[in-house]
Design brief:
Blueprint: H1 28-43, H2 47-56, E1 67-72, E2 75-81, E3 86-91, H3 97-109, E4 113-118, H4 119-124, H5 126-137, H6 154-161
Parallel strand pairs: 3-4
Antiparallel strand pairs: 1-2, 2-3
Helix pairs in contact: 2-5
Length: about 160
């Protein structure tokens, strides 16, 4: 059985690549700041985040491992299950929907599935929220693959250069 790639951030070099994942290279002070913000959010969760984390922690939901306040690219998501490329966000009712849509689109471009719930929905019926998450966890998905580029060899380069 092969290991699935896990959701992570890239810290590699930048070049003119077409894959959206290549624009996620976060380094230096920006990465340190994201780590500090994520740590602060883990230490000061909302009531809804506490309630949902009680159900997700220690692989309680279907045996899937979740991480909370996880850095994905250039943002911090509330909960992530890296093995199945799933992100769960808990939002206030008054959050900017345009910003949500942009975030969801950016994550979807690289194959990350996003589930969003309101604080009220989680606090009113955390079991129903968990059922929806479990349903998505058990749904098969196809992660987009990076386009393959042909290997570059010195002979091919010399031929293409006209030598």
């Amino acid at each position: 059985m092969t290991q699935r790639k896990k959701l992570s951030i890239s810290t590699g070099p930048k070049d003119e690549a077409a894959d959206p994942r290549d624009t996620w290279g976060v380094r230096g002070k920006r990465l340190d700041r994201l780590h500090d913000m994520a740590r602060d959010r883990r230490r000061n969760p909302s009531a809804a985040e506490k309630a949902l984390w009680a159900k997700l922690a220690n692989q309680k939901l279907g045996g899937f491992k979740f991480k909370r306040q996880f850095i994905v690219g250039t943002s911090i998501v509330d909960f992530a299950c890296p093995t199945v490329w799933l992100v769960v966000e808990i939002d206030d009712v008054d959050i900017d929907t345009e910003l949500q849509a942009m975030s969801d689109r950016k994550l979807a471009e690289v194959g990350v599935r996003v589930l969003r719930f309101t604080n009220e929905a989680v606090l009113e019926d955390v079991d129903a929220v968990c059922a929806q998450i479990l349903d998505m966890l058990n749904t098969p998905f196809e992660k987009p693959r990076r386009p393959r580029t042909p290997p570059v060899t010195p002979v091919a380069d010399a031929y293409n250069a006209g030598y």
